Each structure stands twice: as C-alpha cells, then as structure tokens.
Amino acid sequence: MRLLLALLGIPYERRTMDVVDRSNRPEVLGGLNPSLRVPTLVLDDGRPLGESGAILWYFGEGTRFVPDDPYERAQVLQWMFFEQYDLEPSIAVVRFWVAYSGRPDAFADRIPERMAAGNRALAALERRLEGQQYLVGDWYSLADIALYGYTHVAHEGGFELEPYPAVRAWLDRVASEPGHVPIDA
Amino acid sequence: MRLLLALLGIPYERRTMDVVDRSNRPEVLGGLNPSLRVPTLVLDDGRPLGESGAILWYFGEGTRFVPDDPYERAQVLQWMFFEQYDLEPSIAVVRFWVAYSGRPDAFADRIPERMAAGNRALAALERRLEGQQYLVGDWYSLADIALYGYTHVAHEGGFELEPYPAVRAWLDRVASEPGHVPIDA
Fold it and tell me: Which of A126, A181, B21, B178 could form a disulfide with A6 if both were Cys (CB 3.0 to 4.6 A apart)?
C-alpha cells in the first residue's frame, strides 16, 4: 500500500498501531472498520476503508497498475486474493511470530505447519512466474505490488528463497521499477 | 459463485473435486491455477481464472451487483477480502472439519481457536449490519453474495447465530432476493 501510494505520488499521514498489544483497537478502529484490522484507510473526507486489497484497488483503479480488460482485471484480483488467503497467513504470520512478536517460543509448535503453507505459497508463485516477467500479462500491476510486500521480507521469517529462482528474479525486477521505494512491508 | 451465476442466468458446467483426497489436484488443476485451489473457472475460450472473489468480480463487474462509484466498489472488495481472510478460514474450515472431513476428531485440538476466530468474524459482520440492510450502501451487492455462502451454513460447523440478530435478518433478506436459489455453499 505504501509502495503504491509512493508510485502514484499520493500523500498520506501514517498512524501506526501496536501489533502485539491490540487492546486499543476497538477504541481506535471501532468506528472505522468492523474487523478491527490494519491497514484501515481514512480518506480526506473522513470515509473509512478497510482491507489492504480494497485500499490498493481504490487507488489503483484507473491507473496503469489496473488493466482495462475484464479478464486481466480479474487476474489481478486473483493474485491479490491469493496473497490474502495463502501468502499473508503463512509468510507474514511466521515472520511476525519469529521476528516481531517478542516471544517466538510461544508460537514454536505452530510454526512448522505455517512454514509448510508458506513454502506452498512460494511454490505457487514460482510456478506462475516461470516464463513470465510479472504476475499478470507482461507489465507491472497491482498484483505485483500486493505480492511483493511480504514476499520480499519472507527471509525474516526464516523462509529460504533459494528454491524459487523465478520469484527471486521477480523480486529484483519489482525493486528496479521506476519510482520504487524501499518498504519494510 | 453459483448464486451469482444463477442470479445472472449464466450457464456453466460444474466439475467437483474431492475436498478430502486432494492428490489429483496437480494433475487436474496444475495447468489452470498455480495455487491448486477450488473454485477454478475455465472460460469458454479455455482461459482459466482462480479465486472465488476474482471469479465473482469477473462476472459481477458491469452488473447491478458492482456499483460504479469508486469508493463503493472498494467497499465491496473490502467485504470480499474480509470473507477470504477472516470468515472462510474460520467458519468454512470448522464446518469442513466437523461436518465433511470424515474425521472430526483429528482436528479437535484446533477447533476452539478457529471457533473463536469465526465468532470474531460474525461479530464484525454483526457490527457492520446493525442499522443497515446490506453490507455496502443500501442494495444487494457482490459483497452480500460473497459473504452469504458460508455464513448461511455456519450452523453446520456448530456456530450459534443467536447472538447475531442483524446477521440473521440479513441472511433472511438475501434468501428472499428475487432470483435467489438455494446453494449449499
């Protein structure tokens, strides 16, 4: 999301939430997003929007990052849904447990299953990227932006990208796009 | 998805996959969807599309089920991403374990956490639907279609809808929409 906003030159104010102590979420997010998840966007006129994929779509539709063709648009969404269903719950969650929770031991017995799921997600990404430069068509789209976030920091969760050469090449490709800015996902 | 296709009168051929024995997925789905998930759609011209949310969007865009306003469109996607991230992995998964896996005991130790997550999802849905008829705006949209699927069979997983009166009223409202057809999710 920050990557897209930077690419599009859209200014925003960022307010961070504690990802360990979530006790203030009902107070801060209650009126904005019933699911109490981050990110939650508040537009200049006060209207809220939740879910990273929906926020990406809001800003991306009508730009070069969302194609006009109905099938290609749906493919962009396919990979964004894949990110939320398969990649985030495995790769981002393991990374959080291992590197950010402050108590990785508490999650030790749940890590192997999620690591396996993360490797299945990386393998799916690898199959998709074998022989093509970007996730949808042959251009840089919202799908690449959405998937780049947690994939490029997967190593922080202990994921080894060595077996996924097409994924590694794609990460380099995204990072060398004009206007790319470093993000920590 | 079947509900949307019925509402739009779009004919399709359905091929079912075993949800317990998944060993034939690489063979059947390998060339169509790198994530090997169902549903995977194949268009008449042979092009494949994965992820239920992407398939819904493909058929829904341009119909009365997807609004024209950019903010409302993004809200529809917000609830579709919520469904895939919060509701499906809890409510649909518990229902599968309890009612369809053939070996509920094998999942017994993982059920309480997913039941809690499912109730958090239902509570989020309840907060959203308090005081409004549908998830986005005041009309029946793709968001309602996407969320109805597993919510209306949540009881099969042991979820009790008694604490969620707005959700129950909304389920009745969706089921009485013109053109509604019974689906088993």
Answer: A181
